């Protein structure tokens, strides 16, 4: 609306964000984008209020010792705030559209000739990454099919169209084949604040096998997947879908006697990951906390 | 004057057994600052250094040392902004009061961050007596979670048996006191380990009551999460690489250090736990991974 105080604007956005995340909790990117917008508003407000760029928005020991009073309360209306925020959001949109290309551009640094790369399921980011490297290098890809939805099949078809030598294998063979693999490159659904992943079911197995063989595990994911949540209740991120995929309803006799689960996601702890490749470059999992503080404001972690 | 300082410090610890020793030290130092009759910053810093040394001779814990260092840093930062001494002193006193007010809320902030990590039906292992851990468990009880706690009895002063178990029973939490030696035995039954800290060092490791390192090693071996809860004023500028690197003045009680006995015959009261064994640290600055701790310290001291 017209020059309404920024505090009201932020409350509005926060309420909408809560509604959207409650509708589908597993789609964490929705919440992440709402938090990015809130941070943009805080920054633009701060800039208009006359605060210097360096002044830290985060809680820190330094701020505890030097602050003279309470934190600001966004009460002063600034008519130009709306235009500034809209411009900043447009910049963000441009950045978002370019993420897959930014990640793919880094492919040549990580993939070398005659390497054997393993991946699991279907990830658009990994597909772009491998295709970009295939333009200049010759390598092989082994795709784990990722039962029960078997999206690995689609990945293999797309990769082979670019003349990349692709092999599909079942998830059970991951450990057996791992000794021949040079690198594991995967995508993910969400990156958590401690550097852990929420990825398709089967990724944890892949990560453990890679750790056992000391094979580097590289995660290609854009920064909008970074979510400021910690894995507190281990079951909270789980999403279960119809067990039809695991055991079809035609097997009615058996179905009556057993419980069948079909979880969609897996939790992968940060110790198993070697590198995150995102649109801002490559980072170690222990550095994720820093990236988070650049993207989001601590008061927005809980929407 | 120095004897008044010691008296203020002791009085605070007597009147409020719940207050953290670092906070009591900072409050006493602020009182000392108010009474200081010096005219220069340099003079003020020198008399404060003497005051901190005196306090360390009363209570040799890491927390008092880190509280003192923080106060000195606070003085330096404020004095850089104002060149006029009397104005500077006014601002220091005002900011000091604000800081103490904020810091008194830190335990509640930590409890709010940490209690979601305790699931319903969890079995928690904790070590010795920590008021922050107690506050976290209180918050978990308030949010209607049911859990049980194993406490180590924590020799040589039996702090776990005497103080922690008693306080937990008052909150109606099922408690089992175990021998320090039984940690390896009990670890398979435990869901998470939650300890406090006397000091958090630059590498992200912690200094805490003797026995903490053992618990951390057992937890790592059995893949159990090891959580540390500590307020931010416990961050200290040390970087020990092993147990020997921790200065002797923290390892032993102030009275033992004064008698000048052969320290190799004495049992240390604290040990150092390395950051590779710690899963997460809960502080009033937020939930931090051990690598984030050094960032916080750099932001403050450099």
From TrEMBL, chain A:
Keywords: Cytoplasm, Initiation factor, Protein biosynthesis. It holds the Pfam family IF-2B. Gene3D superfamilies: Translation initiation factor eif-2b, domain 2. It is found in: Cytoplasm, Cytosol. Its main location: cytoplasm. GO terms for biological process: animal organ development; central nervous system development. The keyword Transmembrane does not apply. InterPro entries: eIF2B_beta_subunit, IF-2B-related, IF_2B-like_C, NagB/RpiA_transferase-like. One of its GO terms (cellular component) is eukaryotic translation initiation factor 2B complex. It comes from the Eukaryota. Transmembrane segments: none annotated. GO terms for molecular function: guanyl-nucleotide exchange factor activity; translation initiation factor activity. Component of the translation initiation factor 2B (eIF2B) complex which is a heterodecamer of two sets of five different subunits: alpha, beta, gamma, delta and epsilon. Subunits alpha, beta and delta comprise a regulatory subcomplex and subunits epsilon and gamma comprise a catalytic subcomplex. Within the complex, the hexameric regulatory complex resides at the center, with the two heterodimeric catalytic subcomplexes bound on opposite sides. Belongs to the eIF-2B alpha/beta/delta subunits family. Acts as a component of the translation initiation factor 2B (eIF2B) complex, which catalyzes the exchange of GDP for GTP on eukaryotic initiation factor 2 (eIF2) gamma subunit. Its guanine nucleotide exchange factor activity is repressed when bound to eIF2 complex phosphorylated on the alpha subunit, thereby limiting the amount of methionyl-initiator methionine tRNA available to the ribosome and consequently global translation is repressed. This is Translation initiation factor eIF2B subunit beta.
UniProtKB/TrEMBL annotation, chain B:
Keywords: Cytoplasm, Initiation factor, Protein biosynthesis. The keyword Protein biosynthesis applies. It is found in: Cytoplasm, Cytosol. Its main location: cytoplasm. Pfam families: IF-2B. Component of the translation initiation factor 2B (eIF2B) complex which is a heterodecamer of two sets of five different subunits: alpha, beta, gamma, delta and epsilon. Subunits alpha, beta and delta comprise a regulatory subcomplex and subunits epsilon and gamma comprise a catalytic subcomplex. Within the complex, the hexameric regulatory complex resides at the center, with the two heterodimeric catalytic subcomplexes bound on opposite sides. Belongs to the eIF-2B alpha/beta/delta subunits family. This is Translation initiation factor eIF2B subunit alpha. It comes from Serilophus lunatus (silver-breasted broadbill). The gene is Eif2b1.
